[in-house]
TrEMBL record:
GO biological process, one term: peptidoglycan biosynthetic process
Region: Jag_N domain, residue numbers: 6-56
Name the UniProt record assigns to this protein: RNA-binding protein KhpB
Bias-annotated ranges (Basic and acidic residues): 73-83
All residue ranges annotated as the KH type-2 domain in the record: 131-204
Gene3D superfamilies: 3.30.300.20, probable RNA-binding protein from clostridium symbiosum atcc 14940, R3H-like domain
InterPro entries with a match to the protein in the record: Jag_KH, Jag_N_dom_sf, KH_dom-like_a/b, KH_dom_type_2, KhpB, KhpB_N, R3H_dom, R3H_dom_sf
């Protein structure tokens, strides 16, 4: 009785070539069915899906290659503290933190229809033009009536969106906006020789969120100090965690620590133990 094997590649013809080589059968003699034709995704960056075929293997055929052993990821290093917490959350603000499922949801929508000081970026550069064009194409699949303005600060390009359905563009906890920023930064930096940081905002949402996070940090700091118990803020990306760390960095009564794994880790505010005064 014949068995079947599945082969994946960027396109069906490449998957057929792989199957032909593995089974030592000419492509024209392969018996197969296409499971998925694959997808190039959004701008070739995310949402990419490989083509997959199922090939009938004759009983007399022996495979020339065997599948590679599974790769087990190495465990992450222990969580860093104090200033290391800020450094850990200070790097690729939107790149490290973006929730991949959220990025894929933004890509699906399209398919269906802060750093070192340097000179300001030239507004006429190809990178900025590419970034604005990419952002326009993305938001046009999500909403209508949105306008884009551009501002540069040192090595950071700021794209500000006004109009349209702001709530949909921002998404829950800003996840959709974060995914859009991730995509635009990827595209811009494909056109640039140096790393250019990108910020995408919708009607001042980022400034409002920054101020709300600072107020939340101060409120939970006071709570932790008054109760003597840790206060936890769940599901925060690296950019938001850094805001909390910086807000409470000089607060002598508490310390902050990021805990957990994955894109959205928790941040815990620990009250510091008070030292007892020594008797004279």
């Amino acid at each position: 009785m014949s068995s079947s094997l599945e082969f994946e590649a960027k396109a069906v013809d490449k998957a057929l070539e792989k199957a032909s080589k593995a089974l030592n059968i000419p492509i024209e003699k392969l018996q197969y069915k296409v499971i998925s034709y694959g997808s190039s995704g959004i701008f070739g960056l995310v949402g990419v899906k490989k083509a997959k075929i199922s090939v009938t293997v004759p009983d007399h055929v022996k495979l020339k290659t065997s599948p590679p052993p599974p790769v087990h990821p190495e465990p992450e290093s222990p969580t860093r503290r104090a200033d290391e917490e800020i450094a850990a959350d200070a790097g690729d603000d939107n790149l490290e933190a973006v929730n991949e499922p959220t990025v894929n949801r933004v890509a699906a929508l399209v398919e269906e229809a802060f750093g070192t000081e340097s000179d300001a970026v030239d507004l006429d550069s190809d990178a900025i033009i590419a970034g604005k064009d990419a952002l326009r194409r993305i938001i046009d699949f999500i909403t209508t009536g949105a306008d884009i303005s551009i501002e540069t600060k040192a090595d950071r390009i700021m794209f500000n969106i006004e109009g349209g359905n702001a709530g949909v563009l921002i998404g829950k906890r800003g996840q959709t906006l974060e995914a859009i920023q991730y995509l635009v930064e990827k595209i811009v930096n494909r056109q640039s020789d140096k790393r250019i940081r990108i910020q995408v905002d919708v009607e001042g949402y980022l400034n409002d969120r920054r101020e709300n996070l600072r107020n939340l940090a101060r409120k939970l700091s006071e709570k932790a100090k008054s109760t003597g118990k840790p206060a936890t803020i769940g599901q925060m990306n690296a950019h938001d965690r850094r805001i909390i760390h910086l807000t409470l960095k000089n607060d002598q009564g508490v310390r902050t620590q990021s805990i957990g794994d994955g894109f959205y880790r928790k941040l815990v505010i620990f009250p510091k133990k008070r030292r007892k005064k020594q008797a004279l």
